[in-house]
Amino acid sequence: MVFPGRFSTGCLRCRQRKVKCDENKPSCRRCAIYGKPCTGYTDQFHFRHTRTKSNRGNITIAVVPEEDVLPSPCKKKSSAKPSARQRLVRNVKESKGAESPLQGTRSHSPGMESSPLLRSIEQCYDDVSLSYFVTRFVSPCPEDGFPGHLSFLPNLYDSGSPDGLLETATLTVAQMAAYNRFGGEKFRIESYKNHGRAIKMMQDIIKIEENAIDDRVIASILLLCTLRDISGAGDDHPNEHASGLFYLIEKRGPEQVATSRGAELLFLALIRLQVHSFLHQDSTYSDPGKIASLWGSFDPLCRAMAMMSTTLGLRHSLIQHLDSHSHHLSHRRRHLQTDPKEKTLQVIQSCFEALDEFTLWDCEAATYWQTTFQERGIPTTLGQISSRGTHYDVETACTLILIRSARLILMMSLIAYYYQMVDMACHLTKPTLPNLDEDQGPIIQILALLSQCEPLLSSDVTKTIDDMLACVPYALGEIDTLTGLPHTTGSCIKHDGAAAMVIVHSIRLVASCAYASEDQVQRAFQVLARFDRGIGIRAASCLGGSSPDDPRPVAVSLKTRWAREQAFLRDVVSNRQCSI
Fold first, then answer.
1. Residue 447 resides in a domain
2. Measuring CA to CA, which of 22, 316, 340, 408 is 20 to 30 A from 397?
3. Distance CA 214, CA 291 (A)
4. Are 422 and 435 in contact, with CB atoms under 8 Å apart?
5. What is the pLDDT of residues 44-83, one digit of tens each?
6. Is residue 128 within 8 Å of residue 73, measured between CB atoms?
7. What is the mean pLDDT of residues 303-312?
8. Above pLDDT 70, what percent of the chain?
């Protein structure tokens, strides 16, 4: 039978019998003559609409990431029982009737109901971002209790209540990460919307103290801190949630380290608080409740975090002494010293004692790693990481980079203090340091002491940077821990964002260090370029361009005290090379 070009409008029974209906309503007489009751009519017909010029451009395009980077979240459900991580990565499968996102779908007219297909596409935007974030930025849960990066998230995340605080904060970060990696303005807009919702929910929750100290709340704050690194807005913000994070950890007290999840939350919180302390010259929030200091005598990992807090406190003391001398000099007084000689010597002596403690930690940590973590690389002393054939797991490599970065900060702070004090002394006396008159005060004796230590500090700075850069391939999972051979591209892309979030600020230190060699700076910029363009961590580009020759880094980074010190030391190094 040839289709006549139109649909039949007769009753259902006449259409089944393929006879002409008289279309009498409510029941046709043709069915009565046939001896059967009329089954009625239906008004739901399928018509072929001709698209006019007015609706040709009304097209909505769904952005879909590359299939080789991220598995599609809309495939069939596996028959095996999924783990917590798999449920979070593939939670789109739990929604009924989900369809695969289409490359192009025509939007409906305003009078029509929204299509289930469009609702499934909107749902897939969230699930694509969540899948990508968990796959790349959440480290696998370690079996030996070693803290990772958000490894607790798959177990805490409740896909059944997507409107919770933790779920909203996770979606905020996931959408921004997806925007940086794949593009698509919708990811960014939804991230900002969810960020506002998360802030509002957090303000309501922390009003009740019992709810505020829950792991889910602390994890939500850490996720919002992660958002600042991914979006690149961290350095310009005055607080970065530091005060709230400090308050919750301090309120929780030593109970925070009672579980592996709590210990990982504390580890990540201390990293965030110490970055804030370093950037803003405020050591108030560096060690909440002195938890790291108290547990440091039992756990070398906690002691490492406590040593980082001590380093920042000593750096701030040196800066306060230096600013005091500078203020004294600006009032045209003759002598440099404003504090007693004993107080200045005490601070400098504490700095060198802290450096000795770093060396002692390297030795003790090796023993602790051998007895506690059976299948992990063993920490070595300064300068041995790059020279030995030792292979490290991801978590140990990240820890070594963090501990070396604290050591780098302390040594460069001592060097900067020394040369800035020499510069102020020369403004008073005009001659070079060896000809300074000791009548200028006891501070000259301190400078003479530091002048003897400066070559050793300079040598240790080079070794420290070499160790940090040597650990980067292990931290990113590019090298197999057992064989030492490079991983394939597909296997090393997983979870590299988790390690990058932990070490990005440490690599920024190397890239801006005045005592780093040209090769070291170039390697650091290459790592930061991968963090920025390959992984989507915009905080890695806060130094400016992607090469040390770009003029933007100096202009952008001089906002911080560290950057101003490094700019001053570059002039010192340049003048010293010219004099040679």
1. yes
2. 316
3. 17
4. no
5. 544 444 444 444 444 444 444 444 444 444 444 444 555 6
6. yes
7. 93
8. 71
**CB neighbours of residue 420 within 10 Å:** 19
Burial of 529 (0-12, 13-18, 19+ CB in 10 A): middle
Q: Helices 165-182 and 215-231, interaxial angle, to 10°?
A: 20
Q: Which two tokens stand for residue 519?
A: 């090769």
| Interval 167-186: pLDDT, tens | 999 999 999 999 998 888 99
Whole-angstrom distance, CA of residue 482 vs CA of residue 141: 19
Q: Is the pLDDT of residue 504 over 90?
A: yes
Q: Within 10 Å of residue 276's Cβ, how many Cβ atoms?
A: 26
- For 486, the 3-state DSSP assignment is strand
Q: Which of 174, 272, 156 is nearest to 217 (CA)?
A: 156
The domain total for the chain is 3
- Mean pLDDT score across all residues of the chain: 78
- Tokens in use for 14? 């006449």
Judge if 392 and 321 occupy the same domain: yes
The C-alpha angle 536, 541, 542, rounded to 5 degrees, equals 130
Q: Is residue 480 part of a domain?
A: yes
Residues 232 and 363 in one domain: no
Give the whole-angstrom CA distance, residue 260 versus residue 402: 20
Torsion angle of C-alpha atoms 383, 387, 391, 392, degrees rounded to 10: 20
Angle in degrees, CA 326, 332, 334, rounded to 5: 90
Q: Which residues contact 523 (CB under 8 A, 6 or more apart)?
A: 469
Q: Is the pLDDT of residue 547 over 60?
A: no
Specify the residue for token string 């090796």: 366
Short-list 168, 159, 166, CA closest to 82: 159
Q: Which range of residues forms the domain containing residue 523? A: 296-579
Per DSSP, what are the bridge partners of residue 59?
106
Spatial CB neighbours of 375, under 8 Å, sequence gap ≥ 6: 144, 393, 481
Q: 324 and 284, same structural domain?
A: no
Which residues, 6 or more positions from 351, have their beta carbon under 8 angstroms from its beta carbon?
A: 314, 318, 410, 413, 414
- Long-range contacts (CB closer than 8 Å, 24 or more residues apart) made by 262-266: 262/215, 263/145, 263/147, 264/147, 264/148, 264/151, 264/152, 265/152, 265/215, 265/218, 265/219, 265/222, 266/291, 266/292
For the entire predicted model, the pTM comes to 0.76
Out of 275, 295, 315, a domain closes at 295
- Distance between CA atoms of residues 549 and 48, nearest Å: 62
